[in-house]
Structure formats: C-alpha cells, structure tokens
Design a protein that fits this description.
heterodimer; A: 101 residues; mainly alpha; B: 270 residues; alpha+beta; Thrombin, subunit H; six-stranded antiparallel barrel; 3 helices
C-alpha cells in the first residue's frame, strides 16, 4: 500500500514536471517522460509485479488531467503499452538462468 | 484460478471504462480537472518559474559567443527604430488632429485581464492559465503578450483556469496580412509549435523576415473567431512555392517563445 502511495505521488510530480518544467527546454515539449518511465518500469519489473500496470494507470490519469484530451485517453495508451510489454516479456523473452545438469 | 484472474481483469476493465465514460459524458470532468489545477497551481507556478530561469541561464551560456554580434546588430536596429519613431510621432500628431477635425474618437483600448501561465499540454499546442469562468473568461477570447504578439485564443474554460489554444494548434486558423503590403493569407496552426502562412496568391511577393499581423477579416474556419486587427503573429522564416499552384505558403516563426512566457493578457473586450 505504501509503495502504491509513493508511486501515485511520484507520477503526479512527473506529470507536473512534464507540463510545467520541461516545455522550457529544446525538445522538452515533444518528449513524454511519463511514457518513458512506464516503459522502463514495465521492462525491469518482475513478471508478477503490478507496479508497472498501476504506474501506467496513474501516470495516464495525471497526463489526462493536465491535457486537453478526454479523461482516459492516456490511461488507455499507457495501460496498453504496459500490457504489451508484459505480454512480450512473458511470451518471447527468456533470461538466462542456471540449469542443474 | 486462471479463469478467475481473467474474469477479475475483465470486470476491472469494464468498470474502468464505465467510470471514464461517465466522467466524460457529464460536466464532472471539468470539476475534477479544475480541483486538480487548484491543488497543483502553486507547484506548477514554482516549476514554470524555475523552467523560465533555468532555460534562460542555459540559453545565455549557449549564446554567449554570439552576444557581441547580436549587440552590434541590435544597436543598429535601435538607431533605425529611433529614426522611424520620430517619423511616426509626426504621423501620430497629424492623425490626432485629423481625428479631432473629423470628430472621430480615439480607438477604444482593449479591456484586458492579466493571467499567469501554469503549464503546457503534453501533446497538444495549448497552455494552462490561472484565469477562468469566475474571472469573466469565455471561449474564443484572444490571448496576447505584453508586446501585443498573438499567442492564441481561449479553448476550454474551467471555473478558475482556462486552456489557451496556441496559434500553432491544428484547430487554429485566421486571416493574416503582411505589414506594409496588401498581401493577405491564412495563418494556420501545424502542431508542434509550427505556424504556416497559407493561401498567399502566386502573383503577390513576400520575403523572409516579413512580419505578419492579424487582419480584421476573421477566420476561414468558424473555430478561430475574429482577432483584433494589427496583433503581431510571426516573421516569415521559409517560403515554399510549387510552380503550378495558384497559391503558395510560408513558415512563420511566432513572436512568442513558449519557454519565456510567464504572464499573458486576455483581451476581454475589443
């Protein structure tokens, strides 16, 4: 529960930085740091972890709040991205492990 | 167990879809956004101010090399402008006398409201300002800088905040005119902070560096509404001509820099 709370605060602050701080820098208005973070968390999280999906939901929600689109627009995009990464990792990626001979 | 998990995911997805649908179909989404903006505006204010200062500092370091050249150029420009100003002062006096003689009152000044910029949309060309319906702001009002450079028009209005659609927004389109000439065209937003000056008749000539201002004819698409005459729109950066076409277009660099915007003016009455 504590982790989820920290995750919500974290994505809220990233969304604020994205909309209020980064637009001042070259290419800052074009890059989406919330999306990048969601991809990174989902790539490096354990298979059974849920923080990647929750991060996608809350990150998307905050992006929707600070954008012109309808509520749910970024939630759908980020959740789809997170589910897709998890699916690809589960089905097609195998990390090398020690096998007892 | 596996089916249970799938069923759980399906139920959560359906509930989430209903939740977002209900939010978007009722005016409740505006209330939610407004309350988030109320809570976030002090932090956004700090971030935006820090962004302005940080980008200004880095820009200063990067452009230090060119400062001397730019300074010389600006000095020359100031001299030219001073000379032009003297001529204009004479014209102003003459204009005033003629107006008095003809009984025409001086043009009414704009009634304006000052607003602070809080943030920029992630993907769209729009900014958030701290004035809303409670301050008498309504959709379509023009937004300018203190130098009378057009920024855009009010899009969505919340109780205490508003979204400003920049002139580079794809939904933005209005008539423009090149200063000191009769060349008219349509200023269109291209997204990603790009602005085009389109539908310039083939027989009319413009050159790089020409200044485009608003003309009082209003927008081609009803969305843009009418902007007051004479607001600065942008400078011609690049001209694109295709021989068989009856019209050509040019890319404009707007007179405002999104990174340096801190305060804007909303023209309430004109």
């Amino acid at each position: 529960m504590r982790n989820i709370f920290i995750l919500i605060i974290f994505f809220y602050l990233v969304a604020l930085l994205q909309t209020s701080f980064f637009p001042h820098f070259p290419m800052g208005h074009l890059s989406n740091f919330v999306l990048v973070l969601v991809i990174v968390i989902n790539l490096f999280e354990a298979q059974e972890g849920k923080l990647g999906l929750l991060g996608a939901f809350f990150g998307g929600f905050f992006l929707d709040i600070f954008s012109e689109n309808f509520l749910g627009f970024w939630v759908i995009i980020l959740l789809t991205t997170a589910v897709f990464i998890k699916f690809v990792l589960r089905k097609y990626v195998r990390f090398p492990t020690f096998v007892q001979v | 167990m596996k089916l249970d998990c799938k069923r759980k995911i399906a139920i959560i997805s359906v509930l989430a879809a209903i939740f977002f649908l209900a939010l978007n179909l009722t005016p409740f989404d505006k209330k939610i956004k407004n309350s988030f903006y109320l809570v976030s505006s002090p932090i956004q204010n700090i971030f935006w101010g820090a962004g302005v200062r940080a980008s200004g500092f880095f820009e200063f370091i990067i452009e230090m090399k060119h400062l001397k050249e730019e300074n010389e150029e600006l000095k020359l420009q100031v001299q030219n402008l001073l000379a032009e100003n003297e001529v204009l002062k004479d014209f102003k006096e003459e204009n005033k006398m003629l107006r008095e003689a003809l009984g025409i009152g001086l043009e009414k000044e704009f009634q304006m409201a000052l607003a602070r910029v809080l943030g920029k949309d992630v993907a769209q060309d729009s900014i958030l300002i701290n004035k809303g319906a409670q301050d008498g702001i309504s959709e379509g009002l023009p937004v300018i800088t203190s130098q009378k450079a057009l920024i855009g028009r009010i899009g969505q209005v919340y109780s205490n905040f508003s979204k400003v659609l920049l002139i580079s927004h794809p939904q933005s389109s209005f008539d423009g005119k090149v200063t000191d000439s009769e060349v008219l065209g349509v200023v269109k937003g291209e997204g990603n902070l790009k602005v085009a000056f389109d539908f310039i008749p083939r027989e009319k000539e413009i050159k790089e560096g020409d200044v485009v201002i608003t003309s009082a004819l209003g927008g081609e698409r009803a969305l843009s509404g009418v902007f007051p005459f004479g607001l600065l729109v942008g400078k011609v950066r690049r001209i694109e001509r295709a021989d068989p076409e009856p019209f050509y277009w040019a890319e404009l660099s707007p007179f405002f820099n999104i990174g340096e915007l801190e305060k804007v003016f909303i023209i309430i009455n004109y």
